[in-house]
Structures are given as structure tokens and as C-alpha cells.
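Input (structure):
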């Protein structure tokens, strides 16, 4: 019989939960270390009590960096089974979390399918779903309507919800006064801003935060504090609107922790490379080490079609400097709904960023596969090379399409292969080049 409500409450009571044990084993940490980090809020284990098929993961700056993939049914892709296949493909490619951003029809069956079949952490953005759920225009929705949708998602087994609690009526003045180039680019943030502008009321996710905490506590839903004012272009990076919201997110983090509710804090956005590390440190200080979940950061605005790369550069710097969780970005970002290949490119790019950061952070065993790859390359063990690869399919295809004359080289240098020459030289063998 479970004698705690949330992972955080259990940790603070000194209880080591099955989820903490699973995380400890995956992260090469002791169960006690994980319990302490969960108690302090520096690691979250997003695991709704009703998501029974979950394979638990911990999110925290000292753990392996996790990645999230956004999927969901939309007007252009409304077949639940096809979307579910994409979800499972994303999980098989290494995504630890799926955010269901469904924006069409009855969203509940797909959400329930996710929490009954998918082992990854499931996240949602209830404010998007409110309009779809009630099939009413934004301005006609009430604060209670929004809160009821959060409860519905909690009852459906969702592990974390993005809530844009950090903007208030004051933000409306800030945005007008500070004249950002891109205003608000967060979809949820823009909806909350629009609702406040149209109704003249305070942000319901801020005003009724205590009620929201009660719901999240009951089901152990982690709150991902959304950053409505995340910069949408380099020029808006680290501006007053972004930092002012972050300060409020720090206050809300403290309030959630008082009720044992787990919290992540969302972050930028678009940002010049030289500002990223400082932003991670500021977030860690203001939000007292709560895990930081970043979208990008995208380090240049002029590469549409390649934003999986611009985001991977920023994501690697962010994760190496303290971010715990990366939201994938696909080549279709800013342009269109991603197709299957875009999703794959986005996942691979995020995984590379996360992995590169984990090596720099010296996460236990993070470099094992790289070291094995070095040995496999020296010995021309191609099968081992595929085993160590993030994307073996692509690696194999490139080699096979341009196969070399001999197995002990590749078609790049042929008989001038440095690896082959060195192996032979060190073995005292004759080196035939011509
Ligand atoms: S041929 Fe050149 S690129 Fe290919 S394995 Fe040898 S040294 Fe590396």
C-alpha cells in the first residue's frame, strides 16, 4: 500500500520508491543519492500514479540528459494508430518523453492510448487542449474550464503538464513597453496572453496555482513551468520579459515544493551562443536547482530547414552547462508540421547534443560507447561500429553505397588509409600503397 502521494513526498519521508530504484540502476547512482536529489527537487521522476506501464526516468542536471519529442493528432494527421506508430518509433530511437500536442478532434482517446501503452514520460499542454476539448473560442472559456482540463489530463495518467503560470497582467505592459522583435512565440503562452487581453482577467494558471497544486499532488503530475516569454529570435534573448518571468517561475517553484509537487522549469528559445551558459546558471540559482527543460536553444535565426542543427548546437552547450532535458527541434521548425523523416532527424540531432553534453559533464559511463567505437574503428570491426552508432542504419547505408575495394579501409582514402598504415607499421608489416 502506497503511503505517499508524490515521489517528492516519499523522498522527503525517507522512502525509496520503485521508481527511484529504477532510476538509480539506470544512472549508476545509489538509491539513496536519487532519493536525496528528488527530496531537494533537483531530480524529478515524472510518473503519474495512473501511468502504470511507464519505464521511469529521472530528469536532473547531474543525470543523463533526456530528450522529448512532440507528436499528436492534428487535422492533417488524425489516425490514432499511425500517430501511435510514430510515438513508438520515437521511443525506440531514444526519446524518453513524448509531449502530446494533439490539436484536432476528441483528444482523450489518443491521450489514454499513450498512457496505457507507451513507456515514455507523457507530457501535455492543457491550455491548447482546452479550446479543442470544449470546442469553444478562447475568450468564452473560464478559469474553471482550464483547471478542469488539467484535472482531466491528470486523471488520464499524464506525467507532466506545461503550464504558463509565469506571465501575469503585468507582462502585458512589459511586452508593450519593451518592444520585442518577436513578442511571444510560445503557443501556450500566446493563448494565455490572448485570453488575459480579451477577458481583462488575471492568468488563471497563476491565480489558481494552489488549486492546480492540489490536482498535481493527488496524481503526482510534475509541473513543467512554461516560459511564455522565451525569446523567439536572438535579439530578444535574455531580455527583461524573459528574466522577469523566470523570477516568477522561481517563486512558483518554491510554492510547488511546499506541497511536495515536482517541478521542471522551461527555458529558451533562441539565444546567441555566448549567453547560453550564463542563462543556465541564472536559472539554476533563481529556481534553486529545479531541472531546466530547454527548447533549443537555437543559436542562429537564419537556417530554416536546418534548425535541428542550430538547436543541437545550443542544446549541447545548454546541457553541458546545466540543462537537464532537451525538447527536440526538427528541420521543419518554423516551416511546417514535421514528417516522419523530419522527426527522425530531430531525434538524432537532439540525441547527439545530449550525448555530447553528458560526456562533457562526466555522467557515469557516458563515454563507454565512444571508447568502444575507437577500438572498433582501429580494428575495422564494422559490426561493432554499427552497434556503437546512434543511427546505425544511415551509417551502414553510406558505407555500403560506396563500398571500398578492401574491408580494411573505406572509400574515403582507400589504400592511403591512415588506420590501415598504422596497424601494419606497428605490426612490422609491409605497407602496399600502389
Ligand atoms: S580510409 Fe580514411 S576515413 Fe576511411 S577508415 Fe581509413 S583513415 Fe578513416
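Output (sequence):
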Amino acid at each position: 500500500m502506497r503511503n505517499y502521494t508524490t515521489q517528492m513526498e516519499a523522498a522527503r519521508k525517507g522512502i525509496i520508491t520503485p521508481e527511484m530504484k529504477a532510476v538509480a540502476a539506470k544512472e549508476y547512482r545509489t538509491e539513496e543519492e536519487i532519493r536525496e536529489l528528488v527530496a531537494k527537487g533537483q531530480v524529478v521522476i515524472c510518473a503519474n500514479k495512473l501511468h502504470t506501464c511507464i519505464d521511469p526516468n529521472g530528469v536532473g542536471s547531474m543525470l543523463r540528459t533526456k530528450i522529448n519529442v512532440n507528436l499528436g493528432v492534428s487535422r492533417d494527421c488524425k489516425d490514432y494508430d499511425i500517430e501511435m506508430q510514430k510515438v513508438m518509433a520515437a521511443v525506440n530511437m531514444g526519446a524518453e518523453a513524448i509531449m502530446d500536442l494533439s490539436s484536432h478532434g476528441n483528444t482523450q482517446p489518443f491521450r489514454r492510448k499513450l498512457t496505457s501503452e507507451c513507456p515514455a514520460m507523457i507530457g501535455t499542454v492543457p491550455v491548447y487542449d482546452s479550446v479543442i476539448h470544449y470546442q469553444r473560442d478562447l475568450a468564452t472559456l473560464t478559469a474553471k474550464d482550464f483547471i478542469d482540463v488539467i484535472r482531466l489530463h491528470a486523471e488520464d495518467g499524464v506525467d507532466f503538464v506545461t503550464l504558463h503560470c509565469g506571465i501575469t497582467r503585468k507582462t502585458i505592459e512589459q511586452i508593450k513597453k519593451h518592444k520585442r522583435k518577436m513578442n511571444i512565440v510560445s503557443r501556450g503562452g500566446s493563448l494565455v496572453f490572448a485570453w488575459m487581453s480579451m477577458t481583462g482577467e488575471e492568468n488563471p494558471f497563476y491565480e489558481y496555482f494552489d488549486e492546480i497544486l492540489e490536482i498535481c499532488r493527488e496524481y503526482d503530475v510534475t509541473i513543467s513551468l512554461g516560459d511564455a516569454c522565451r525569446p523567439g529570435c536572438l535579439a530578444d534573448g535574455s531580455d527583461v520579459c524573459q528574466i522577469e518571468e523566470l523570477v516568477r517561475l522561481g517563486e512558483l517553484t518554491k510554492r510547488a515544493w511546499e506541497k511536495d509537487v515536482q517541478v521542471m522549469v522551461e527555458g529558451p528559445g533562441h539565444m546567441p551562443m555566448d549567453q547560453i551558459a550564463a542563462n543556465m546558471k541564472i536559472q539554476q540559482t533563481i529556481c534553486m536547482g529545479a531541472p531546466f527543460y530547454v527548447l533549443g536553444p537555437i543559436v542562429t535565426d537564419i537556417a530554416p530547414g536546418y534548425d535541428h542543427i542550430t538547436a543541437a548546437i545550443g542544446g549541447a552547450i545548454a546541457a553541458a552547462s546545466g540543462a537537464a532535458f532537451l525538447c527536440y527541434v526538427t528541420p521543419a521548425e518554423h516551416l511546417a508540421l514535421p514528417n516522419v523523416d523530419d522527426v527522425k532527424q530531430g531525434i538524432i540531432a537532439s540525441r547527439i547534443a545530449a550525448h555530447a553534453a553528458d560526456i562533457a559533464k562526466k555522467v557515469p559511463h557516458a563515454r563507454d560507447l565512444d571508447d568502444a567505437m575507437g577500438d572498433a574503428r582501429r580494428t575495422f570491426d564494422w559490426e561493432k561500429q554499427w552497434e556503437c552508432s546512434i543511427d546505425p542504419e544511415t551509417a551502414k547505408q553510406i558505407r555500403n553505397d560506396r563500398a571500398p575495394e578492401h574491408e580494411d579501409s573505406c572509400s574515403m582514402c582507400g589504400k592511403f588509409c591512415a588506420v590501415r598504415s598504422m596497424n601494419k607499421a606497428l605490426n612490422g608489416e609491409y605497407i602496399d600503397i600502389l
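Notes: The CA atoms of residues 320 and 360 lie 6 Å apart. The chain has one domain: 44-360.
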